[in-house]
Please model this.
Amino acid sequence: MAAGVVWVALKGHPLGVTRHHCSVGGPMGMLRAVCPHGPPWYPRVRYGTPWVPIPSPHRSLRFHPRSAPSHSAGAMVVLRAGLCPGLTEEMIQLLRANNIRTVVDFVSSDLEDVAQSCSLSYKLGPAAGCGAVHWGGDGAGRSTGQRKDTGVPQHCGQRVPRPQAARLLPRLHRGVHCLPTLPDAPGPGGGQGGAGLAIMMQLARELKTLAKEFSVAVVVTNQVTRDSSTGALKSALGRSWSFVPSTRVLLQGRAVPWEDGAAPHTACLAKSPRQPTGMQVQLDIGSDAVQEQRPVTPTP
Amino acid sequence: MGDAFRRAESGTQLLARLEGRSSLKNLEPNLFAEEGSPVHGDVIEFHGPEGTGKTEMLYHLVARCIIPKSGGGLEVEVMFIDTDYHFDMLRLVTILEHRLEQSTEEMMKRCLGRLFLVNCNSSTQLLLTLYSLENMFCTHPSLCLLILDSISAFYWIDRSNGGESLNSQEMNLKKCANFLEKLVREHHLVLFATTQSIMQKSTNSAEGFFPLKLQSEIDADYRPYLCKSWQQMVTHRIFFSKQFNSGNSTGFTLVSCHLKKKHVAKRSFSIAECGVQF
Model:
């Protein structure tokens, strides 16, 4: 681990996020915001709703992998009476007799065959299927919304704050949420087939959901290592993690901390969804605050 | 009920089938080794490490599709399924602003009205979403392009949830792949999907995958890891990588392979504020 060098991944904000703070109000608010960095990175015009999300965002992600749903029966919603109107106990038994146990089985079966073999009313079949799809939309059986008729799928359900996220951020205010250094995630461990990686990817998903749903920037810190073959610097936690951050800033410090006049701290933009990479700024880390110096000409 | 109900299709399905989907032949010729691609039914996989321009290329394709014919686009609708919260609307809007001559609010709204965006957070949700989207393809005959960014996002989570057997670990993705194939075939779509290079190339992989004379040119760090159902339905695979010229931080390379005909082409591109440029 190189001394004093750390990767910081930023989500959705340009360099120097601690000093700049775009006012946002949800996903559409981002389009309306005028970033204090000014043009040309953000549009100045307000646009209407361009898309129809189908279906509502999931609610199934667990924060603690131990409580993650076990495979098969747990991971898929099992059909039960009352899941949607028309799905009675009798119907459940009939469906089970035809090997249809879960929402996925129901939706993936040929409705005409099901209608014939289970004597299910053909009108009820597709409607119940659609209802089941929207009820079971997150794969974990929690109600995500109201039943809609088949047709153009609409956004169903309201945005309910997720209990895990609410626990993490008890008082939510706009801005930046910083997390301490990510724990060392075990690599694809032996016979478990990547349980450690799965935990890390679940964490990544949780963080992204937080960022998107609560319109906050999520900042994580990470170590940096050298690539064994090319010798180039790369972020730790491996390939799978490297896809997670949308913005990446490389912080580099003085080689010798006590020597004045040596190379100052710099922050370099290594990855960004909207800006060209390579821009660098000098940072002056004083006793009270980090101050941004004038930008440094990026080195090729 | 009787045989009359077998294979019934609704009026809208019939109309959609007869009317046909617009041709996407001029979508982006630089992405393909042979002319006249893509055709309906093609499944194109973008593969590469992070930061190599896969998502940017998707924005480029979306912009090409949703811009009206008067602006040089194809004026077709696009369905974008985002599985890892990667989609950046601001970036797409910036690209559109640069490509449209008159980027008025009205024009923007009309363009964006041709884009349908879906977020999925688990492979089960992806599967259920695909089932519920089938109706959309029937009712929107101009919906020709289906984009899935990325199809490998749930790989580790599915492996961990699937217990010991590889079959149950892959079950969800296999069902998704099978249903995607059915959607693409029945509704005459073109599917673009991205996969991430999360595995290191093993020493004996990629043998017989590329014609020998080109193998030295292709430095693809490719090791197939998704289920067989997906591998078998892909018709074109495009490998993305960064160029390592000094001083060129925006240079990228793509290598496009037609899997059946074994045609290969290599192209360079850069990413500017207006998007991908060849």
